[in-house]
Design a protein that fits this description.
With 127 residues, the protein is mainly α. Helix content is 85%, strand content 0%. It has 5 helices and no strands. The chain starts with 5 loop residues before the first helix and ends with a helix.
Length: 127
């Protein structure tokens, strides 16, 4: 009989504690990805700037949220790429499609973030 994942047998705070460890391990792994490094470093500048630039809690939340969204989508894209790469180095149309869609998701999140920040900067400095 196949052994089950030990995480599935955990409950309560024990499960939460181990899940936190897996999440931190994922963030450490992501740090070795250049795109994630760039986005994380930009977030160290943009998130504090959002608290200065935001004129309401809604605007501040949108500014911070879009920056974090870019990093979340990058993590998901990296996960997709890692899963595809694990399957093997040979080229396959479905593998290419999955990677391209992950990349498109990152692009859309970057466009959303840029648009929200551009609107906030315009409102702050030109209105």
């Amino acid at each position: 009989m196949e052994e089950s994942n030990p995480q599935k047998n955990r409950t309560g705070l024990n499960r939460v504690w181990h899940a936190l460890g897996y999440s931190l391990s994922g963030l450490r792994a992501a740090w070795h990805e250049k795109a994630f490094q760039q986005e994380a470093l930009a977030s160290f500048l943009l998130i504090p700037l959002a608290f200065w630039l935001g004129q309401s809690w809604v605007e501040t939340t949108l500014l911070v949220g879009t920056v974090i969204l870019v990093m979340v989508v990058e993590l998901l894209n990296t996960g997709i790429e890692s899963a595809i790469d694990r399957m093997g180095p040979e080229w396959h149309e479905l593998s290419k499609r999955a990677k391209d869609m992950g990349s498109a998701a990152v692009l859309l999140s970057l466009l959303l973030c840029s648009g929200v920040w551009a609107a906030a900067l315009y409102t702050h400095f030109f209105k």
